[in-house]
Task: inverse folding
């Protein structure tokens, strides 16, 4: 089940708010400029389907988002728990960073943990299948796919080189919960 936990930066052990309905999560994220939507497939898709088939199943929402936000590239990325490079892939965005374009992901299947650092608050968002999240450019955040990563995601890009991680060098990400096995409900 998707979940949002909001923490004060100084208190990583105790969330000040927990939201676990899509409507509540979207309402809490809207004031910081983060979009959170649920999309439904127009046709059934199963694990192993080609990217073209996956994108066709969500064409209406993809086209709407591309039109609204001016994306130039859309792709599909997937990772399974037995990927031999999973440890390096997990490590890549585990520390606090930002991008110069929005980070927009739709979870076709599986899950991942986005944690956003905004002023003195931390928003930990567990994304599950059917969730679309749009993190604005320059918003500091980190992403954890967990030690046994499993997801298929549609990604949206504006510039070929826009989605580069600029790391802040802080240790804040290490103070907050990581994505552990079994956390997805
Ligand atoms: Fe990122």
Result:
């Amino acid at each position: 089940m998707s979940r949002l936990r909001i923490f004060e930066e100084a208190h990583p052990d105790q969330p000040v708010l927990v939201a676990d309905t899509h409507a509540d999560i979207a309402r809490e994220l809207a004031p910081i400029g983060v979009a959170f939507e649920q999309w439904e497939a127009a046709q059934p898709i199963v694990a192993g389907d080609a990217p073209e088939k996956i994108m066709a199943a969500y064409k209406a929402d993809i086209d709407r988002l591309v039109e609204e936000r001016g994306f130039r590239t859309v792709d599909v990325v997937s990772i399974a728990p037995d990927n031999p490079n999973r440890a390096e892939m997990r490590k890549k965005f585990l520390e606090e960073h930002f991008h110069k374009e929005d980070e927009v992901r739709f979870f076709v299947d599986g899950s991942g943990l986005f944690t956003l650092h905004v002023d003195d608050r931390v928003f930990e968002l567990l994304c599950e299948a059917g969730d679309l999240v749009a993190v604005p450019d320059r918003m500091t955040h980190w992403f954890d796919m967990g030690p046994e990563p499993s997801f298929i995601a549609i990604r949206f890009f504006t510039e070929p080189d826009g989605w580069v991680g600029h790391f802040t060098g802080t240790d804040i990400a290490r103070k907050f919960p990581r994505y552990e096995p079994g956390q997805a409900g």
